[in-house]
Amino acid sequence: MIGRALRTFLGVPVIALAVIPFGLAIALAGESERAERFLRGWCRLVLFIAGARVVARVHPLDRSRSYVFVANHTSNIDVPAIVSVSPEPLRFIAKQELGRIPLFGWAARRMGHVFIDRRDSHGAAKTIGERISRGLQGVGLFFFAEGTRSTTDDLLPFKKGAAVAALGSGLDCVPIGIAGAREVLAPKGFSLFRPGPIAVVFGAPVPVAGHKMEDRDRLVAEQRKAVEACVREAREVLERERLRTT
Question: What is the domain extent for residue 97?
Answer without folding.
Answer: 2-244
